[in-house]
Design a protein that fits this description.
This protein is an alpha+beta fold. The chain has 7 helices and 4 strands, in the order H-H-H-H-E-H-H-E-E-E-H. The chain has 2 domains: about 55 residues, Arc Repressor Mutant, subunit A (Orthogonal Bundle); about 80 residues, Glutaredoxin. A 4-stranded mixed beta sheet has the order 2-1-3-4, with helices on one face. Bound molecules: FE2/S2 (inorganic) cluster.
Length: about 150
């Protein structure tokens, strides 16, 4: 995937170019590109003067970071215990069918990614689906498809 990396110097300039800034820089890169492109990690290592292995170990340690491109819209299906008991598996099936991809995948047009997540702390609303940053509670399998079709 081709990217315009001309924003990287701006991102680096927003932070002190010291190893302690690594996580914040990775957060900004993830926000900009919706994942952490390999080239950006290489540039980060250079800018902070830290080994690339260190940058990769931080990038792979935190779940918030992704090394794979994500869709414009990220659909997170909670599969924690409360959501599981209230039908998360069925909701997952409906959403996967609606988008013709499996959890962990991104649509070829880069519009949607599906992720499964553990409890997101909203068990009273179970089952929960988060489309981008918006929480949807008490989701029914019958309206799960509508969530992603209207989730743009
Ligand atoms: S188990 Fe889904 S929000 Fe807690």
């Amino acid at each position: 995937m081709k990217h315009d990396f001309s924003h990287l110097p701006d991102i680096f300039a927003r932070h002190q170019q010291r190893p302690e800034a690594l996580i914040m820089i990775l957060q900004d890169i993830q926000k900009e590109y919706r994942y952490l492109p390999c080239e950006a990690l290489q540039e980060t290592a250079k800018a902070l003067n830290v080994p690339l292995s260190k940058v990769f170990s931080v990038a792979t340690f935190y779940n918030a970071f992704s090394l794979n491109p994500k869709g414009k819209n990220v659909v997170r299906i909670c599969v924690g215990t409360a959501c599981h008991i209230r039908g998360a598996a069925l909701i997952r099936d409906q959403i996967e069918n609606a988008l013709s991809i499996k959890a962990g995948q991104t649509t070829p047009d880069m519009e949607f990614s599906i992720e499964v997540v553990a409890c997101v702390g909203a068990c009273a609303m179970a089952p929960v689906v988060i489309v981008n940053e918006q929480y949807h509670g008490s989701v029914k399998p019958s309206n799960a498809k509508r969530l992603v079709k209207g989730g743009k």
